[in-house]
Amino acid sequence: MKSRKDSWAVPERLEKAVYRGRFAPSPTGLLHAGSLLTALASWLDARTSDGIWLLRMEDLDPPRESKEAADGILFALDALHLHWDGPVLYQSQRIEAYQDALATLVAKDRIFPCICSRQDFGNDSRIYPGTCRERLIQPDQAHALRCRVDDRVISVEDRLQGHYSQNLIRDTGDFVIKRKDGLFAYQLAVVVDDAMQGITDIVRGIDLLDSTPRQLFLQELLDCSQPRYAHLPVLVDKDGNKLSKQQGAAPVDVTRPAEALFRALAQLQQEPPDELLTAPTQDILQWAVNAWNPGALNNQTSLREIS
Ligand SMILES: [Zn+2]
User: What pTM was estimated for this model as a whole?
Assistant: First the structure.
């Protein structure tokens, strides 16, 4: 795939970094304890490797998102001294690049229109049975565009979760690239942007582990190199429920950044010493960079919230 830089570019001094990580929140709400864990872990992983850490706003779904939330996330990261390199990339400004990638997939005969609704898929609505692969569709019928997948196993060696594989035919089916409402799907946008930004290392929540084989598949079709992956355990409350914006998780209190970072480090099993609690924010982060041990999270799927 041709890399199209648009107006986005990392300053030249950062171009040569060997490790290129990123944090890519969707602005559906403010930074909460769960998204702070992802931000902090990916920041630490990049800084420990003398890498760069890029910020991407995954604002592709306007009905669910707001500019206030996007600005609030940037404000929170700044207050926590989790500074990013280069300008923020906004997916809402990348439509042309997604269009190009779609054209590549069309040229490879991978794309077909689908008029199904979720109810058409029977019991397991997460797996598309290929209904529209051969169906004749009128041009004026509302349709999504799906990518035709292969009947073969795709595997990833995750740094934290180990070996993970799917056969896309069996586990997801042909998946959506462009939605019925005209919006590009996350799976395509994330692959196109990771490639354009030259991302080498993805540190993100385990809820995205099952998206990874679809992204590897698209990386192959679009001739993108494959990043390394580390999928973090998800933060759960005392009842074992995932903390999420949808569940009304409270935003991180950024007026007390040291406390928020200390707690996040403890949740990430980094065992910060008590005296750090009263240390300046920069000292906490410096300690954390020196001590960063992602192996403490090996094979864990959930982390208990500390309040
Ligand atoms: Zn269909």
Answer: 0.93
What pLDDT is attached to residue 242?
A: 82
What's the residue count for the chain?
Answer: 307
Residue 10 domain flag: no
Q: Are residues 23 and 130 in the same domain?
A: no
pLDDT 10s digits, 235-294: 998 888 887 766 667 899 999 999 999 999 999 999 999 999 999 999 999 999 999 999
- When pLDDT is averaged across residues 174-193 and rounded to a whole number, the result is 97
Structural domain boundaries enclosing 55: 16-92+190-304
**Structure letter (DSSP) for residue 182:** S
CA of 130 to the centre of ligand 1 (A): 7
Backbone angles phi, psi at 146, to 5 degrees: -115, 155
If you measure from the C-alpha of residue 217 to the centroid of ligand 1, how many angstroms do you get, rounded to a whole number? 20
Nearest CA-CA partner of 298 in 165, 228, 206, 236: 206
Residue 54 and residue 25 share a domain: yes
Please tell me the distance between residue 156's alpha carbon and the centre of ligand 1 in angstroms.
28
What is the rounded CA–CA span in Å between residue 243 and residue 239? 11
Q: How many domains does the chain have?
A: 2
Q: State pLDDT tens for residues 93-102.
A: 999 999 999 9
CA of residue 111 to ligand 1 center, whole Å: 12
Q: Which residues are CB-contacts of 251 (< 8 A; sequence separation ≥ 6)?
A: 29, 30, 31, 32, 72, 76
138 CA → ligand 1 middle, Å: 13
- Residue 223 phi, psi dihedral angles, 5° rounding: 55, 45
Alpha-carbon torsion, ordered 179, 183, 186, 192, to 10 deg: 120
Contacts of 270 (CB under 8 A, 6+ apart): 288, 291, 292, 293, 296
